[in-house]
């Protein structure tokens, strides 16, 4: 028990007689007893769900029934906000487990559930404490420190003048300062708080768990820090309140643009998760208790957390008995998996604020080609519009958008343009006229359309919580409505926190009103997601019959955003510190279930040195979303401008990204079906290796065994790469071998080199022919890189589809497992057939594997000149002997096998194995 809580004086008790368990759902009443003995009723629902999940919801009876009075003639709803689930959850994974059983004894109630009754929920009645167990193992505890709080409704009692802080009757904490309970003024903005205090809070403890991860979006270490001061710790809680933060601080619990109130607690043998389903401003305090077991050593660490939200229900999911991977899957089932992006979305994007004219765009496009640098997408920031009016073009600077888009299309390239949620308030601008006449804008507290200041000056905001607003939004995107757009145009939704330049904390007043009369305070963190979701649905319906997977980039996000957008980390700076910070931030997006993430390559503010920009491209080649971007005041920095050796080195990094697109796409497919992060952290890949739990500066690409450690410090000539296991790791470029578990290894990293290793045991798919864009690589042949493990074996998967439509949902895809075992490499189908499988395979008939590279090939292969291929002739094998620390390798050229068919390449009997393990 820590010193902070007051568990015994918690005023919350569970009424034992109220408990009823039916079909996996427990209903009951928590009672809050005030100092004046008044009792407040808080209805409790505990749902026992599959895969070791449970959901606890606590509401407030009086507000639930609408039996309260609002102040200031407010039109706001009276209930606690109860629609967060409708936005964040998919509806899957919520089936209560009917086998749950309840027993009561001595002021405690216990529910067991799960296929082997292995999960237990123990509710202590007085005070109210909830413990979650897997078998005998206590995993998660609620309110053991007595921080549970549900601010019940009460009328404001006006005090006699001169006695400002006195109200009667009082509840449990007579010393509390009420000055901000009923109204709060901040920087000249007054929040009217018509429902008075209504916050919810709970302490959640993880006994025996030394590390917690999650709570995107923040800068700082992946393993979250303690927040109550002390050496290296934060001295404030992590805050979640989506904001347009200007020049954000590094290593800080300050809030950023998006929020995912999900946390994983991890220890050597177990992982558990907590999802706090609330869309209001939220704070999370973290402390750790170190204590010894039976007096031996420093042993066990407990992590204690304390979650507080300004309003809404207390609604939380606890997920037991997991690994990091299974937890991603469970959380993904609840909140949705990553939308499978079109292929161009995971290639390289070239952005700046701004490309100033259509001629400028065409010129940049030509210069990339002239410099032989691949790119897929060029972006237009605000200045393409006529006076910041979205859905228009500045016809002085962009007189011919169609011509520009056609030039891009000729190389299968795309254009992404910015559209923000603020709509310029200008008479005659059709979009705002429609917004107003149809009454689809967010309202102020008095019920009139809210007017605030953003890029266009005076603006209104679309209320995407309103289904009618979303339907209207769809009507703005068809090609005949949004003139100047072709089907290679996609959308960037920025400023959707929402950013309001003259609002409190650069956002909307909390007492603004949304559809359904919910206050903005209740939905603030969800708001950005409703907007990019609306854009997603609008883009799907641009033209009847044309069903392309939309690409949308969002700045603000909530749990569930992964279903329709990619994100980036906003306005970073051209500094080494910001480059370094991008790695844990992007890894953390994987924990959050929203892994399609990137940071502005080169840094948004400021001008990067050539070294920094070059290193940033190398790191960016390992962001799931790879986009360069720059502020309007910065110098031009397209990669071809830097000169040699920088341009050449950046081009190499980009070509590496393009060569590995098949591996990246396969990782995205995993994210889209199982919720796994696209780039994965050390603890995620090696959950049993304690030494790696705090490592957050190296990353693995999907399940490929590729391990990158981007250089993020100025002048570095080498990095230390930590290896958790005993397997051989090979340098990606020259096959130098590294091995030795549980320690760091020195890897040379002169400017031209990206430290990139391949873990033994994997097969990595690639495409090695350099092209202008990913679209032009569609029919290119594959290379398979077999990286042998110590047993001489390797395995990997490949997912391929048309990269642009939804036909994969009807089986139009190839999903293969490649396996080298007993000297035989086989390709096996692991997909499920659908109506469109056969037709798709026909289109892919001529796409072949043109090369097989075997890293750490046995020396007995030296004498082999060819290898037999099933269903075909033998293929030539060329063997390269080991040299110094560099492993031997072999290459088989033109084995003549299709990427979508079954085949076997026979390298010879397993007995011939002679794999180098000691170097
Ligand atoms: C803020 C965004 O974070 C930035 O990327 C963009 O360039 C500016 N808005 C202008 O649209």
TrEMBL record:
The keyword Magnesium does not apply. Residues 675-764 form the Glycosyl hydrolase family 31 C-terminal domain. It catalyses: Hydrolysis of terminal, non-reducing (1->4)-linked alpha-D-glucose residues with release of alpha-D-glucose. Residues 47-285 form the Glycoside hydrolase family 31 N-terminal domain. GO terms for molecular function: alpha-1,4-glucosidase activity; carbohydrate binding; Glc2Man9GlcNAc2 oligosaccharide glucosidase activity; glucan 1,3-alpha-glucosidase activity. Gene3D superfamilies: Glycosidases, glycosyl hydrolase (family 31), Golgi alpha-mannosidase II. It comes from the Eukaryota. One of its GO terms (biological process) is fungal-type cell wall beta-glucan biosynthetic process. Residues 154-173 have a biased composition (Basic and acidic residues). Pathway: Glycan metabolism; N-glycan metabolism. Residues 787-825 form the DUF5110 domain. Keywords: Endoplasmic reticulum, Glycoprotein, Glycosidase, Hydrolase, Signal. It is found in: Endoplasmic reticulum. Residues 339-667 form the Glycoside hydrolase family 31 TIM barrel domain. Its main location: endoplasmic reticulum. Its EC number is 3.2.1.20. Residues 154-179 are annotated as: Disordered. GO terms for cellular component: endoplasmic reticulum lumen; glucosidase II complex. Belongs to the glycosyl hydrolase 31 family. This is alpha-glucosidase. It comes from Cyphellophora europaea (strain CBS 101466) (Phialophora europaea).
């Amino acid at each position: 028990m820590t010193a902070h809580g007051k568990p015994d004086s918690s005023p919350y008790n569970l009424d034992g007689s109220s408990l009823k368990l039916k079909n996996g759902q427990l209903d009951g009443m928590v009672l809050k007893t005030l100092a004046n003995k008044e009792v407040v009723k808080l209805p409790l629902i505990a749902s026992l769900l599959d895969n070791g999940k449970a959901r606890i919801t606590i509401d407030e009876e009086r507000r639930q029934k609408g039996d309260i009075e609002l102040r200031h003639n407010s039109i706001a709803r009276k209930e606690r906000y109860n629609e967060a689930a409708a936005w964040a959850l998919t509806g899957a994974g919520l089936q209560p487990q009917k086998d749950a059983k309840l027993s009561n004894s001595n002021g405690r109630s216990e529910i067991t559930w799960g296929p082997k009754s292995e999960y237990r929920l123990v509710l202590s009645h007085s005070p109210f404490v909830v413990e979650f167990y897997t078998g005998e193992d206590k995993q998660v505890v609620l309110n053991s420190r007595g921080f549970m709080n549900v601010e019940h409704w009460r009328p404001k009692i006006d005090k006699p003048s001169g006695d400002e802080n006195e109200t009667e009757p009082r509840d449990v904490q007579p010393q509390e300062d009420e000055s901000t309970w009923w109204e709060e003024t901040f920087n000249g903005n007054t929040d009217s708080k018509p429902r008075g205090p209504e916050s919810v809070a709970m302490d959640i403890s993880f006994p025996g768990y030394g590390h917690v991860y999650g709570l995107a979006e923040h800068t700082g270490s992946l393993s979250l820090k303690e927040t109550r001061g002390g050496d290296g710790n934060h001295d404030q809680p992590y805050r979640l309140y989506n904001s347009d933060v200007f020049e954000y601080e590094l290593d800080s619990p300050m809030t950023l643009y998006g929020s995912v109130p999900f946390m994983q607690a991890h220890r050597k043998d177990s992982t558990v998760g907590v999802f706090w389903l609330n869309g209001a401003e939220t704070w999370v305090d973290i402390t750790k208790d170190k204590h010894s077991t039976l007096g031996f050593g420093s042993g066990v660490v407990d992590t204690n957390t304390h979650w507080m939200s300004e309003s809404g229900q207390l609604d939380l999911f606890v997920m037991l008995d997991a690994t990091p991977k299974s937890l991603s899957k469970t959380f993904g089932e609840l909140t949705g998996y990553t939308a499978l992006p079109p292929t161009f979305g995971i290639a390289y994007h070239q952005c700046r604020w701004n490309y100033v004219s259509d001629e400028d765009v065409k010129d940049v496009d030509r210069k990339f080609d002239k410099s032989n640098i691949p790119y897929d997408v060029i972006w237009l920031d605000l200045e393409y519009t006529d006076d910041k009016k979205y859905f228009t073009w500045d016809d002085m600077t962009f007189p011919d958008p169609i011509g520009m888009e056609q030039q891009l299309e000729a190389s299968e390239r795309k254009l992404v343009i910015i559209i923000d949620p603020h709509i310029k308030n200008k008479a005659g601008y059709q979009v705002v006229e429609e917004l107003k006449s149809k009454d689809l804008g967010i309202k102020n507290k008095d019920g009139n359309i809210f007017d605030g200041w953003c890029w266009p000056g005076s603006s209104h905001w679309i209320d995407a919580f309103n289904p009618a607003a979303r339907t209207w939004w769809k009507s703005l995107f068809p090609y005949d409505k949004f003139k100047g757009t072709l089907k290679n145009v996609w959308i960037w939704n920025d400023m959707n926190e929402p950013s309001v330049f003259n609002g409190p904390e650069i956002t909307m007043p909390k007492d603004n009103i949304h559809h359904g009369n919910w206050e903005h305070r209740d939905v603030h963190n969800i708001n950005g997601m409703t907007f990019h979701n609306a854009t997603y649905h609008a883009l799907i319906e641009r033209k009847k019959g044309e069903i392309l997977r939309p690409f949308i980039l969002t700045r603000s996000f909530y749990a569930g955003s992964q279903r329709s957008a990619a994100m980036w980390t906003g306005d970073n700076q051209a500094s080494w510190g910001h480059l370094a910070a991008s790695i844990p931030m992007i890894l953390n997006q994987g924990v959050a279930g929203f892994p399609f993430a990137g940071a502005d390559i080169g840094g948004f503010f400021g001008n990067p040195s050539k070294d920094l920009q070059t290193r940033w491209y190398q790191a960016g080649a390992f962001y799931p979303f790879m986009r360069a971007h720059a502020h309007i005041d910065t110098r031009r920095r397209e990669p071809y401008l830097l000169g040699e050796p920088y341009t050449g080195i950046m081009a190499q990094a980009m070509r590496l990204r393009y060569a590995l697109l098949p591996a990246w796409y396969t990782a995205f497919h995993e994210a889209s079906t199982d919720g796994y992060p696209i780039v994965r952290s050390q603890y995620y890949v090696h959950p049993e290796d304690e030494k790696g739990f705090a490592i957050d500066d190296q990353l693995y690409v999907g399940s490929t065994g590729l391990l990158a450690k981007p250089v993020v410090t100025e002048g570095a000539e080498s990095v230390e790469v930590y290896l958790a296991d005993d397997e051989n790791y090979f340098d990606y470029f020259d096959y130098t071998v590294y091995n030795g578990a549980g320690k760091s290894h020195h890897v040379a990293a002169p400017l031209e080199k990206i430290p990139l290793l391949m873990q033994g045991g994997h097969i990595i798919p690639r495409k090695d022919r350099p092209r202008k864009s990913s679209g032009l690589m569609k029919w290119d042949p594959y290379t398979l890189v077999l990286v042998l493990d110590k047993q001489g074996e390797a395995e990997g998967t490949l997912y391929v589809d048309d990269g642009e439509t939804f036909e994969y949902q009807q089986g139009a895809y190839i999903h293969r497992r490649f396996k080298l075992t007993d000297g035989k490499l086989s390709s096996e189908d692991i997909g499920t057939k659908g109506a469109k499988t056969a037709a798709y395979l026909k289109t892919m008939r001529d796409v072949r594997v043109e090369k097989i590279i075997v890293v750490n090939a046995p020396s007995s292969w030296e004498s082999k000149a060819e290898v037999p291929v099933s269903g075909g002739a033998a293929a030539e094998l060329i063997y390269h002997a080991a040299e110094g620390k560099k492993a031997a390798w072999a290459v088989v050229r033109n084995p003549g096998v299709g990427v979508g068919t079954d085949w076997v390449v026979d390298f010879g009997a397993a007995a011939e194995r002679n794999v180098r393990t000691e170097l």
